[in-house]
Amino acid sequence: MKKLILFFAFCTTSIVAQESSISAALAKTIDGATLKEHVYTLASDAYEGRETGTEGNTKAATYIADQFASYGIPPLQSTGTYYQNVDFTVFKWDTIALSISGQSSEHLSEFFAIPQNFPITDKPIDISSMVFLGYGIDDPAYSDYKGVDVRGKNLLVYGGEPRDEYERYRISKSVEPSAWSSDPSLKVKAAKDAGAASIWIIEERFRAMASFARRNLLNGSVQMGSPDQLNEYIPHVIVTATIGQQIAGKKVKKIIKLRDKITKTGKAHHTTIPVDLELIARHEIKSTPSVNVLGYIEGTDPDLKKEVVIVSAHFDHLGKRGDDIYNGADDNASGTSGVLEIAQAFAIAKKEGKGPRRSVLCLLLTGEEKGLLGSQYYAEHPIFPLENTVADVNIDMIGRMDKLHTDTNYVYVIGSNRLSTELHEINESVNNLYTKINLDYTYNAEDDPNRYYYRSDHYNFAKKGIPAIFFFAGTHPDYHRPTDTPDKIMYDRAALIAQLAFHTAWELANRNDRIKVDVSTSDKS
């Protein structure tokens, strides 16, 4: 473990200079050599890709906790450990089979259903009658449900939404589709709210949707909560146009004619269809325990220590696929190692009696690759009150370069101004003073098609109204591949980015006034 003895001439320097000297000295303890040690351990084959719920993930959590202990950071008073237990459930299909008039259909080729969004049943679903209900939309601008009683009925609908003769969508009244086109869950909710027994959606985009679903279906989807939550859903199945025609049978021409009438007139139409359909959908469900790992450095100021600055990164990755190990050196052993180094710097400050004034929580999160689940769990079950949480400084993938840059001296900064202009100004200021990295805000744009602001753990804090800043170096050809290995990490560069994150967290933890939320945004919830 690195050691730092801080000697400062407090009598001859100003308070500002003192703070600058302390911060600079502490930041120097964050170095590439130690980052390398952490990454080579966490991204080794022995950790088998650190997938949530696996032995490798548990081994990584133990390693992180051991590092906190070695820094002199005590366990949480509330639990006596460094862990927050997080219970997940893995949903897979044990059996999924569809037959129409005795003819079998192939899952993921002709139809698919998502196990984590499907109610639990041990009995086959036998359907002898369906109601064709247009597009299955219930919206003030257009409704297929108005005047139709579908309670206890099985619905067949088209995906998307109707358009007029000028190709304008009838919901948005423009050439841009509404959410009814992109989000099938709206149709499922409308069917459930109307009391329908099930809904079957004919999708032109079936191949793309099935390809996206396949990743979760094959390995199982990890969700928070218990199996009971599935009973909030009704059975819903996505089918190809060909399967839709088979379901419609002799009434297929009438259905097409009704669809054309909807397009021409903007008025809903429906009809009843006799069918001979059986769906067998049996779940395979297992509990998957995991943990978030917390290193808490209590603040030294009697009044300010109740406030908390979070420094976060996820430590999970994709695990194994067959014999291939997805080591996840950049994603996110690099960010995890950065947070470990930051934790040690704050621990040194605490030991030397030089701060931090506010408390700092170094939070290593599980389940990010499963849908930001570890951070979602903490945000919903916080160890320290969210109203006392000042900000989240999040680090994810800082070890490589992307193809958009030729100079290594850059980092993407995302979210810093979404909720607090002060957070943005602090990061700019400490960077100008200490690290002098080129700050790239490309992915902070609200119209960024990559939507990175919504794709890392900081977002679950931002949703709660907590200012968040996300440091990211971009993707590369080894992203989410077995080739994301420790030998490719640029350790000194990663250390410099971690130093910037430290300086930002240090300022947040030591300034007199808590930063304000002064930006109105729809991202808050």
Tell me what the structure shows.
The chain folds into two domains: 32-88 and 289-510, Zn peptidases (Aminopeptidase, 3-Layer(aba) Sandwich), CATH 3.40.630; 90-285, Glucose Oxidase, domain 1. With 525 residues, it is α/β, with parallel strands linked by helices. It is built from 13 helices and 19 strands. It has helices at residues 15-27, 32-42, 55-70, 179-182, 184-193, 206-219, 241-248, 252-265, 329-351, 373-380, 421-435, 458-462, 491-510; strands at 83-100, 103-105, 111-112, 125-132, 138-139, 142-143, 154-158, 198-202, 221-224, 236-239, 271-297, 308-314, 319-321, 324-326, 359-365, 389-395, 410-414, 438-440, 468-472. Mean pLDDT is 92; it is low at 3-16. The strands form three sheets. It has a 15-stranded mixed β-sheet that branches.
Q: List low-confidence stretches.
A: 3-16
Helix content: 25-40%
CATH structural architecture of the largest domain: 3-Layer(aba) Sandwich
What is the C-level CATH assignment of the largest domain? Alpha Beta
Number of domains: 2
- Calculate Rg over CA atoms: 27 Å
Instruction: Name the CATH superfamily assignment of the largest domain.
Output: Zn peptidases
* Count of discrete alpha- or pi-helical segments spanning 4 or more residues: 13
How many beta-strand runs?
19
> Which structural class should the secondary elements be placed in?
alpha/beta
**Nearest-integer average pLDDT:** 92
Shape: elongated
CATH-assigned fold name of the largest domain: Aminopeptidase
Kindly, what is the distance between the CA atoms of the first and last residues, rounded to a whole number of angstroms? 42 Å
Beta percentage is 15-25%
Biggest beta sheet summary:
15 strands, mixed
